[in-house]
């Protein structure tokens, strides 16, 4: 939140959502974001390996920049994960994601 | 059923599986979405998902091992040994591993408490609690009653101890006591009498070739068990056809005794006399060559009456054996005698310690394997006689206030010493404590303390080892450190006292104290550099300087006065108490991991027991689990009987640690405290309990001990194998048999890249069970409790099996760590209807929890019995849940689980290697069990790499695989235990 406040201390102070942010900051409370792109607890996913394999953000998350309200991206089921792994010849061993 | 609708079993499970999955999916959708809560101001050093390690010092016992704590997102999740620490060199014992359950214990005192008039406690603010304490102290100070205030603390590190003394001084009192239940009074007294040194030396087991222990259980609790286990395994390692010898003397076969070449069973309390008999034999055979005439002066006279023949009569050890032991001890160089139990554990501990020290002196071990240094941390521990004197003063109403810091005197002192009653006569009792134990429960004001893992501090177990403690995470509850509390209290008492303790916090005091240490060490760097370096490393190490040791001229007279030959009473049964491998003196009793950890010898969990020899049991009509009433002249306890070969027929043994009446949900009301059987008399000069006669009565009650043991006989199955040393030495080539090749039904697994495997050296495994706790901590293995253990539903992924070979008289114990063997032909795999159990290309036998539907076929088919089923949803009461490793799934009810070779660590190491664009290095991956093993009995690595340590060791001529005839092709190779050929 410190990062958000870097700009929003001065920028967009008249916008309703920014005001919410400022109020929380003043109360020293973090924003409780709702997790949209969530995986079950028994799935272990690292962004690092996917980013370094040049998987674009949109591949899983969709085009967030065009979303008014963020919705779940295209790859969020085991089927979609496995298909992509097969296409890219990545490991489809169970323990690649589950452990 | 009509033909068309008939379904096979496999199809049935497919349908059920799909149905189950669909149900789960629906379930998922209905669950409220998880929340993502960002840091308000992100901590600079924290990267989510990346572990951060902090070096600190373990404070679970006086050994002072170095630890590194892995923290994730600001909470500690795993304790490991600090590899650069000179004491433990990277390993940790079971109690050290369980230190996290002290930190996260759900029964910690969460805020300051003040006693109401009706005896209950009410939570108050720190302001109010400190105000109340300060008011009391201020009154006492102005009335000049400072001397009527005493401070009793558990063994604390150098700077904190100094601060307590300074603070007490400012209050006008010098009455500071350090209390340790196992204070080694006997050992210190022995060295005081003989050499005028009230200290405990450093014993170098690794350098020795011949060790004899007179009741010192150095592999489980004695002084510094991790350090000694490492030294012991070095001494017992096979080199050029030889292996060091080890003999254990005492009335009970302890874990340490089980690792000896032979157990020399002596009448209780006579260990020291055996040592004197050996000295007699050494002197009369002229084997004390290193001893000059002046050094020998008086010794002949001292042992004159202890001829081997006479000693044989006292101890019950054959004369020939005594002479043989003596000869071997004097001629195999260098040798080492260890003696004197922890204090309570051995009758006549002082005599045993004197005997051992004299033996070392006579053959010239002092300066070789026994190094006296200027101090050891245990020097500061108050004698039992001092504590007894304080109790007297309290009883006489001479103490106005007692301050107690983390010392459970009510539980740990002999009940007849009357500390609990004496406490009631002290008007003001202030406890600085983490837990509401028996002593804290008597206090008027309780100031809740940080766990050591939340505190700053230092600890120096011996000269040259200066170990630092730093908080590894923010405090969980509204607690404070003792140092900070003392500084704050001084400011509140009055300005004069505040002036004598001017530091803003204990952290500042510690830094100042370390700046003094830096000068002492002759280090000229800027202090900040020195401090940061010490913090990173866990402390500062320097080689200790040896003290020269001379036998005091009057020593002989003092020894003769100390040795009481005949037991005061002739009885048919005697008592032997020993500290528990898991619970130590009882301080571990509130840690579920330690309660559930099977005792290495009896395999009993959750509760205590009384060990009775089969002959005695038969005579008394006692059966396993029958509750027996043990009565000594000082009290009575009841405990379920455990029939045990490793105890003398004239002795009954009980472990310490259980029998708490307070101390939280895990410790409370479990077993009985054997301290009620002990003499309250401090003895001539030591806390060594003299020989205690007991009577045993059988009651009608029955309490089955919750044991995890199966059959401790191998029944010819060749599970834990051993080989005679001559067989390796003289016939290395033929002993190296090729492993039998079985015809295979299917082609072998290809293992294109790696094949992970392990080698377990049974000659190094001592059975200490540290690996079991390390595994539970790393892999979120749940604690199931006594009831589930009784029905065989324990969850350990690794266990230590104990097998007994009894070839008439000499009992040989073999310990075998058993975990998933990651078989190449795994019997569990083909029977799984859902493919939840499958083989990975790197040789691991994997279990996928989210595929498992819990048929338990795999477990049925596993010949090693290493698969565990979650019969229930197991609890992790808040805040124990904070310890859960975020890298490992927490399994739910109905799922099978087992050892994964710590796949999360394998994946972690692979991730790093991939980032650095290199293959994995040998030794880079250490599963939790391998990491913590004090003797490095377990080695992990890639069997595909012929240069790896594990591949090399798997070629050893001692190799074999458990139940190999079943053609399971395990990935774990065991190395046979080595047996000495002949007796001494």
Strand content of chain B: 15-25%
How many structural domains can be distinguished in the coordinates of chain B? 4
Q: Encode the helix/strand succession of chain A as letters.
A: HHEHHHH
Give me the oligomer status.
heterodimer
Assigned CATH class of the largest domain in chain B:
Alpha Beta
* Total beta strand runs of chain B: 40
Q: Could you describe the largest sheet of chain B, including whether it forms a barrel?
A: 7 strands, mixed
Layout of strands and helices, then pairs:
The complex is a heterodimer of chains A (99) and B (984).
Chain A: H1 2-8, H2 16-26, E1 33-34, H3 47-52, H4 57-61, H5 78-87, H6 94-97
Chain B: H1 9-30, E1 35-36, E2 52-57, E3 66-72, E4 75-81, H2 94-97, H3 100-103, E5 113-115, E6 121-123, H4 126-142, E7 149-154, H5 158-171, E8 176-179, H6 185-195, E9 202-203, E10 210-214, H7 225-235, E11 245-249, H8 255-258, E12 262-264, H9 271-284, H10 293-296, H11 299-303, H12 308-315, H13 319-331, E13 335-339, H14 349-363, E14 370-371, H15 384-395, E15 401-405, H16 409-412, H17 419-424, E16 428-433, E17 445-448, E18 457-462, E19 465-469, H18 482-493, H19 495-500, H20 506-520, H21 527-537, E20 539-541, H22 555-562, E21 574-578, H23 592-596, E22 604-605, E23 610-612, H24 614-620, E24 626-632, E25 635-643, E26 651-655, E27 695-702, E28 706-707, E29 722-724, H25 725-730, H26 732-735, E30 756-761, H27 770-779, H28 786-790, E31 799-806, E32 811-818, E33 837-839, E34 845-847, H29 857-861, E35 868-869, E36 896-897, H30 903-915, H31 928-932, E37 938-942, H32 949-953, E38 959-960, E39 972-975, E40 977-979
Parallel strand pairs in B: 7-8, 7-15, 10-11, 10-13, 11-12, 15-16, 16-17, 21-26, 23-25, 29-40, 30-39
Antiparallel strand pairs in B: 2-3, 3-4, 5-6, 5-17, 9-14, 18-19, 19-20, 22-28, 24-25, 24-27, 30-37, 31-32, 33-34, 35-36, 38-39
Helix pairs in contact in B: 4-18, 5-18, 6-14, 6-22, 9-12, 9-13, 9-14, 12-13
């Amino acid at each position: 939140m410190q990062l958000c406040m870097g700009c929003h201390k001065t920028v967009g102070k008249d916008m309703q959502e920014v005001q919410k942010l400022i109020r929380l900051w003043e109360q020293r409370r973090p924003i409780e974001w709702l997790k949209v792109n969530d995986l079950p607890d028994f799935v272990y996913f690292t962004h690092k390996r996917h980013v370094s394999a040049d998987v674009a953000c949109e591949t899983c998350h969709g085009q967030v920049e065009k979303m008014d309200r963020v919705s779940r991206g295209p790859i969020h089921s085991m089927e979609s994960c496995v298909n992509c792994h097969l296409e890219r010849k990545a490991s489809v061993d169970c323990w690649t994601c589950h452990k | 059923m009509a033909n068309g609708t008939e379904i096979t079993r496999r199809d049935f499970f497919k349908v059920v599986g799909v149905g189950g999955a669909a149900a789960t999916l629906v379930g998922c959708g209905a669950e409220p979405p998880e929340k993502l809560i960002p840091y308000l101001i992100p901590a600079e050093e924290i990267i989510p998902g990346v572990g951060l390690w902090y070096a600190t010092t373990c404070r679970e016992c006086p050994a002072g091992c170095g630890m590194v704590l892995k923290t994730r997102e600001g909470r500690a999740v795993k304790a490991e040994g600090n590899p650069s620490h000179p004491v433990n060199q990277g390993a940790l014992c079971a109690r050290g591993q369980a230190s996290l359950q002290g930190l996260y214990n759900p029964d910690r005192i969460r805020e300051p408490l003040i006693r109401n008039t009706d005896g209950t406690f009410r939570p108050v603010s720190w302001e109010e609690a400190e105000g109340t304490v300060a008011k009391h102290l201020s009154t006492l100070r102005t009335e000049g009653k400072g001397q009527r205030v005493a401070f009793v603390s558990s063994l604390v590190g150098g700077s904190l101890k100094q601060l307590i003394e300074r603070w007490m001084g400012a209050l006008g009192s010098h009455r500071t006591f350090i209390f340790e239940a196992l204070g080694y009074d006997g050992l210190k007294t022995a060295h005081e009498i003989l050499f005028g040194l009230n200290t405990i030396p450093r014993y170098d087991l690794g350098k020795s070739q011949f060790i004899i222990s007179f009741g010192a259980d150095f592999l489980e609790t004695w002084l510094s068990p991790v350090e000694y286990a490492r030294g012991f395994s070095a001494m017992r390692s096979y080199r050029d056809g030889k292996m060091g010898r080890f003999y254990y003397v005492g009335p009970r076969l302890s874990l340490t005794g089980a690792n000896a070449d032979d157990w020399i069973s002596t009448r209780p309390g006579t260990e020291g006399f055996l040592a004197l008999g050996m000295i007699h034999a050494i002197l009369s055979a002229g084997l004390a060559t290193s001893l000059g005439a002046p050094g020998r002066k008086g010794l002949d006279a001292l042992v004159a009456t202890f001829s081997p023949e006479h000693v044989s009569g006292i101890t019950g050890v054959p004369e020939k054996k005594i002479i043989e032991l003596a000869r071997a001890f004097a001629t195999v160089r260098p040798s080492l005698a260890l003696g004197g139990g922890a204090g309570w554990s051995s009758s006549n501990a002082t005599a045993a310690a004197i005997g051992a020290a004299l033996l070392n002196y006579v053959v010239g071990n002092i300066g070789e394997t026994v190094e006296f240094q200027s101090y050891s941390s245990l020097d500061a521990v108050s004698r039992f006689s001092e504590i007894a004197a304080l109790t007297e003063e309290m009883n006489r109403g001479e103490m106005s206030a007692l301050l107690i810091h983390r010392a459970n005197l009510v539980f740990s002192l002999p009940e007849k010493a009357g500390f609990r009653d004496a406490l009631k006569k002290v008007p003001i009792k202030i406890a600085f404590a983490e837990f509401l134990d028996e002593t804290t429960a008597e206090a008027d004001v309780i100031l809740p303390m940080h766990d050591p893992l939340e505190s700053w501090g230092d600890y120096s177990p011996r000269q040259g080892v200066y170990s630092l403690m730093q908080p590894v995470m923010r405090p969980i509850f509204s607690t404070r450190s003792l140092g900070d509390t003392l500084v704050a209290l001084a400011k509140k008492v009055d300005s004069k006292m505040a002036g004598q303790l001017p530091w803003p916090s204990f952290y500042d005091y510690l830094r100042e104290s370390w700046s003094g240490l830096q000068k002492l060490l002759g280090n000229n760097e800027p202090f900040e550099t020195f401090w940061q370096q010490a913090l990173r490393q866990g402390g500062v190490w320097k080689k200790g300087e040896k003290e020269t040791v001379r036998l005091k001229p009057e020593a002989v007279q003092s020894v003769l006065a100390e040795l009481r030959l005949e037991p005061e009473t002739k009885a048919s049964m005697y008592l032997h108490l020993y500290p528990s491998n898991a619970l130590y003196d009882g301080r571990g009793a509130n840690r579920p991991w330690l309660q559930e950890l099977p005792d290495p010898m009896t395999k009993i969990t959750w509760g205590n027991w009384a060990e009775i020899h089969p002959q005695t049991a038969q005579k008394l009509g006692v059966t396993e689990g029958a509750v027996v009433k043990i009565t000594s002249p000082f009290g009575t306890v009841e405990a379920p009987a455990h029939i045990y070969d490793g105890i003398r027929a004239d002795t009954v043994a009980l472990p310490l640690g259980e029998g708490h009446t307070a101390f939280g949900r895990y410790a409370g009301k479990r077993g009985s405290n054997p301290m009620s059987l002990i003499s309250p008399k401090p003895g001539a000069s030591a806390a060594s309990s003299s020989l205690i006669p007991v009577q045993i009565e059988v009651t009608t009650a029955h309490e089955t001990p919750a044991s995890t043991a199966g059959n401790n006989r191998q029944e010819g199955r060749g599970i834990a194998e051993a080989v005679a040393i001559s067989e390796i030495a003289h016939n290395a080539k033929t002993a190296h048999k090729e492993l039998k090749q079985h015809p295979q039904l299917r082609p072998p697994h290809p293992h294109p890249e790696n094949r992970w495997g392990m080698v377990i050296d049974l000659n190094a495994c001592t059975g200490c069970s540290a690996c079991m706790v390390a595994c539970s901590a790393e892999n979120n293995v749940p604690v199931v409790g006594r009831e589930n253990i009784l029905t065989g539903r324990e969850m350990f992924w690794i266990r230590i099996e104990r097998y007994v070979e009894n070839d008439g008289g000499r009992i040989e114990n073999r310990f075998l760590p058993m975990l998933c063997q990651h078989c190449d032909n795994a019997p569990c795999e083909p029977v799984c209807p859902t493919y939840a159990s499958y083989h990975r290309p790197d040789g691991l036998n994997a279990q996928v929890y989210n595929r498992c539907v819990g048929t338990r076929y795999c477990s049925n088919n596993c010949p090693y019995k290493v698969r565990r089923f979650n019969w229930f949803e197991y609890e992790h009461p808040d805040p124990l849940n904070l310890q859960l490793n975020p890298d490992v799934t927490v399994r739910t009810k109905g799922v099978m689980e087992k050892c994964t070779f710590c796949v999360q660590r394998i994946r972690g190491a692979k991730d790093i290697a991939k980032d650095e664009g290199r293959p994995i290095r040998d030794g880079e991956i250490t599963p939790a069990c391998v990491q913590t093993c004090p003797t490095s009995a377990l080695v992990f690595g890639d069997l595909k790499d012929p240069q790896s340590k594990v591949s090399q060791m798997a070629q050893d001529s001692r190799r074999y695989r458990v139940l190999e005839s079943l053609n399971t092709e395990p990935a774990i190779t065991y190395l046979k235990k080595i047996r000495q050929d002949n007796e001494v």
